[in-house]
Amino acid sequence: MKDKMTPIERATAIARGEMADRLPCNPNVANGVARIYGCRISEFNHSARIIADAQIASYRRFGYDGVRIFTDLFPWAEAMGAKINFPADNTADLAAPALEDIGQIDSLESADPYKDGRLPIHIEAMKYLIDELGEEVSCAGGLVGPFTNAFFLLGIEKMSKLFFTNPEDVHRACQVSLETCIRYAQAIIDLGLTPTISEPMSSCTIVGPKHFREFGEPYLKKLVQYITSKGKPVTMHICGKTDKIWEDIVAMGVAGFSVDNVVNLQKCKEQIGDRVKILGHVDPSAVMYAGTPADVREAVINCVQQAWDSPKGYVIMSGCSLPVETPLRNIEAMMDAAREIGYPIDPEKLNSMLGSS
Fold first, then answer.
1. Is 2 within a domain?
2. Across the strands, what pairs with 85?
3. 3-state DSSP assignment of residue 25
């Protein structure tokens, strides 16, 4: 099946209440683009051209509705002194936080996105991306939020203990992280792309709502407000369970909220869908990675049934980044299911499609 509109044409039509060919759909292929382009993931660490070309190749193959420069969770912490493991052909991981001695916390400085670590490579990749695709699909620069980045500066276990023993150190790490995030977000905006925020450590699966509101929310809210003050809408993703902080997220002023597959999608729509666009939430592991194309089709239909009528809009999406080795046929199945469903949504057609799965 082929699309009849570009992603920008589709988004514009839907926003105006006009006919479109289908709902927006984004499988969030992430570093799996290396498999489509034919390179090793480690090549992303030193080549802006390869990062961009891999994203472009994946978009050209599948035709999804958003393209983003984002390789892993750690470029910002790395640029501020954290040590990172770089596997030959897999996603980077944290080797050591920026600070071994919390007593040196005043030595932390915000990163310069044009000079430090891999950040300049990502910025250069964004230039290639928007030059190639900017007329037809929304192009984004991804960044982690200040709360998550602070964990990588101090160490996850140490920061969790500091909630109780020295909260001022937590605030210091979050503040300097915020400064880095704002500088990087401004660089994204200056290129004409839209920043998107990933905040996995804000998950209620990891941090309770009380500590999120005390340490995470103030800095995350400032980042969202900074981006929106520049005329850019913010889409945010938080992994795991988030229902206890939905109202907090909406109050920040985000335009879109991407939810994990453990979230009750219908409940999310009913509670906050009148104030924020909902994105999600096909299971990236059990369905997209380990399932069959028929499983993917059924999961997409189920998600659309739950959320297609969300007042502020709905985007079909995976619940998180896809595993690198996700079968390409399953990504194709996700896109084809969206095309088969079409737009405007016909609930009777959805029911009949589910019956034929």
1. no
2. 93
3. strand
